[in-house]
Design a protein that fits this description.
The chain is mostly helical. The protein is about 90% helix and about 0% strand. The model has no long low-confidence stretch (mean pLDDT about 95).
Length: about 180
Amino acid sequence: MAALWKAYQRLMTRHPWKVQIFTAGTLVGAGDVISQQLVERRGLAGHNSRRTLKMMTIGFCFVGPVIGGWYQVLDRLVPAKTKAAALQKMLLDQGGFAPCFLGCFLAVVGVLNSLSVEENWSKIKRDYKDTLITNYYIWPAVQVVNFYFVPLHYRLAVVQCVAIIFNSYLSWKTNQL
């Protein structure tokens, strides 16, 4: 396990952006597998591999780049590394970024699920409030710790590890048609 961690650190040093995006996509996919197997209890025969690939694509093409880019912007907006700065970053993240990100996430999933504009809008209106409230149960405390203790290039990986649980919820919630 230590050798795997060292290899990850080497790759992160050489290719931070690629590794962060790869990590996000992989862990969003893992969240979908957990959702299908543990929450929905589909079993291996009932597993929807296409859905897992869609969720991974969202992780690679949307979640990783958007959150990774946001953390870079946030570090420029609040460059200090104090406890007060970590709290300020969390408030910006959860008060400004999270509501927008989750709305966009729901819309992207709807598009990939081939929903019409009307169906997608209806689904967003139905699911957005619950998704945002669930977000607030998990992320404020995680983000304060993340912003205070974790170096910038590891933040997305830390968040995505915690997010396996949240990704399972998002996968379940967004794929209920």
